[in-house]
Amino acid sequence: MPRHVTSVEFAAEVARTLRPDGVYLVNVTDLPPLAFSRAQVATLRTVFADVCLVADRRMLRGRRYGNLVLAAGLRPGRLPVRRLAARVAADPLPGAVLHGPSLDAFVSGAQPTTDATLAER
What is the pTM of this model? Predict the structure, then answer.
């Protein structure tokens, strides 16, 4: 994923273009300890009222490299978290949906990415 699309400023531009009931989806590729994914969740949470993460359980346990999907909505309660959780739990390789307290724990300590922090790297 190009660095310039990982910042709070980019997420704010996306939010500006979404309809009020729109959902922003992001596919993130990461490896243990998922530091990039944690920062991306923190980034989206600074702009969007509702954020969740969908991933393979093994990835979340830090056992493998792979993809996570982040979903973000402008309004609280916009995301169909229960339906997502039911669907990924029924998958042949069950995944997990992190939202609310479980997402709080996942992102704990991660800082949002800004254009300024990207320029420092």
Answer: 0.94
